[in-house]
């Protein structure tokens, strides 16, 4: 499943540059994660980097976008191919 940023976000700006897929961007009030780009860092790292650097632990799994590790890997492969094209 992809990740989501909750209302506890303090806009500290540390998560956005850590995302290897460019899935994190500034929203109207807090940062947001594009579930179409979030692979939980599968294909890049062993752990989601945004969760690792978040000082307030406001990046849980998004229950509305449940995906298996295999589905996340397929998304990673598709995103990687699109980036090379």
From TrEMBL:
One example GO MF annotation: 4 iron, 4 sulfur cluster binding
Domain 4Fe-4S ferredoxin-type, residue spans: 1-29, 31-64
InterPro entries reported for this sequence: 4Fe4S_Fe-S-bd, 4Fe4S_Fe_S_CS, PSI_iron-sulfur_center, YfhL-like
Gene Ontology terms: cellular component: cytoplasm
Cited PROSITE patterns: 4FE4S_FER_1 (PS00198), 4FE4S_FER_2 (PS51379)
Protein keywords: 4Fe-4S, Electron transport, Iron, Iron-sulfur, Metal-binding, Repeat, Transport
NCBIfam families on file: di_4Fe-4S_YfhL
PANTHER family, sorted: PHOTOSYSTEM I IRON-SULFUR CENTER, PHOTOSYSTEM I IRON-SULFUR CENTER-RELATED
Protein name: Probable ferredoxin
Organism per entry: Azoarcus sp. (strain BH72)
Gene that encodes it: fdx1
């Amino acid at each position: 499943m992809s990740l989501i940023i909750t209302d506890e976000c303090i806009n500290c700006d540390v998560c956005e540059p850590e995302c290897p897929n460019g899935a994190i961007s500034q929203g109207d009030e807090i940062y947001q994660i594009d579930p179409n780009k979030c692979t939980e860092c599968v294909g890049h790292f062993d752990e989601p980097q945004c969760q690792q650097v978040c000082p307030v632990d406001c990046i849980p799994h998004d229950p509305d976008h449940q995906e298996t590790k295999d589905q996340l890997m397929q998304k990673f492969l598709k995103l990687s191919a699109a980036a090379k094209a």
